[in-house]
Amino acid sequence: MSRKKLLMGNWKMNNTVEETLQFASKVNESSLVKDAESKGVILAIAPTYLSLQALKQNIKGVYVSAQDCHYAKSGAYTSSVSVDMLKEIGVNWSIIGHSEKRQYEAESDFSCNRKIRALLKASCKAVYCVGESLKEYEEGITKDIILSQVTVGLQNISCEDAKNIIIAYEPVWSIGTGKNASSEIAQDICCYIRSIVEKIFNKEVASEMLILYGGSVKPENIHNYLTCPDVDGALVGGASLKVESFKALVENI
After folding, report:
1. CB-CB contact of 221 with 245 (8 Å)
2. 3-state class (DSSP) for residue 229
3. In the chain, which stretches have pLDDT less than 50?
4. What is the pTM of this model?
5. Region of 152 on the Ramachandran plot (φ > 0 left; ψ -120 to 50 alpha; else beta)
6. Candidates 100, 107, 132, 170; catalytic one
7. What confidence score (pLDDT) does residue 174 get?
8. CB 190 within 8 A of CB 213
9. Confidence (pLDDT) at 1
10. Is 29 tagged catalytic?
11. Which of 18, 29, 98, 139 is catalytic?
12. Are 128 and 168 in contact (CB under 8 A)?
């Protein structure tokens, strides 16, 4: 079946509220959204918590996502934000399990699963990140790591709810390093992820689920990745911070 493409920017800890407003204004004045629509590309951006509301209220034609959320509805969880808090400002997407959360904050597949289920319970969309470290890649255990991350992260989820899940494959060794997984590697792992999803759920869910590639994606290389049959889009870091480079990504899809 034909799946739409998704281009999603993860701003990480970049862009102030003022810079976010400038970005939104430039997007609205440009042909970016129209260009994306003409190519059947969905656009999404995940700014910092502080910029979520500003972006949501001021940008047109772009989905706005959080970079993380907490699985609890409320409580003594300093610095955390609940799904209900996101929904209150109109945000119903969240990235879950990004490698930087796993690396710096000991995020586990189990905690990712709790967050994903909290999002799904609230009819929100979860963008679940999986990927292996350089050591794991060099040891040749990439698929073992991916199997564990996908299986644990997506446990106790119904086929119906699974339709609100997007998976992003981001090899940790290529994020922000300038090193790229080849399009052959991206296709192989995204296809493998789809096969795991089919075993967990069913063929229909697997064929409909968007699976993205992320890791040093730039305007120069995005075309090669997105021509792969199982790569349905890209999760992009630095290249999504400026309207010019974000537009160039769309143009090169």
Report:
1. no
2. coil
3. none
4. 0.96
5. alpha
6. 170
7. 81
8. yes
9. 53
10. no
11. 98
12. yes
| Active-site residue, 223 included | no
Region label for 92, one of left (φ > 0), alpha (ψ between -120 and 50) or beta (otherwise): alpha
pLDDT digits (tens, 9 = 90+) for 99-156: 889 989 999 999 999 999 999 999 999 999 999 998 999 999 999 999 999 999 999 9
DSSP for 69-115?
-BSSSSSS-TT--BHHHHHHTT--EEEE--HHHHHHH---HHHHHHH
Instruction: For residues 253 and 242, give the distance between their C-alpha atoms in angstroms, rounded to a whole number.
Output: 17
Check if the beta carbon of residue 174 is closer than 8 Å to that of residue 213. no
**Residues present in the chain in total:** 253
User: What are 213-225's pLDDT values in tens digits?
Assistant: 998 899 999 999 9
pLDDT at 6: 98
**Residue 186: which region, alpha, beta or left (left: phi > 0; alpha: psi -120 to 50)?**
alpha
For position 176, what pLDDT does the model report? 65
Maximal C-alpha separation, the chain: 48
How many CB atoms are located within 10 Å of the residue 203 CB?
11
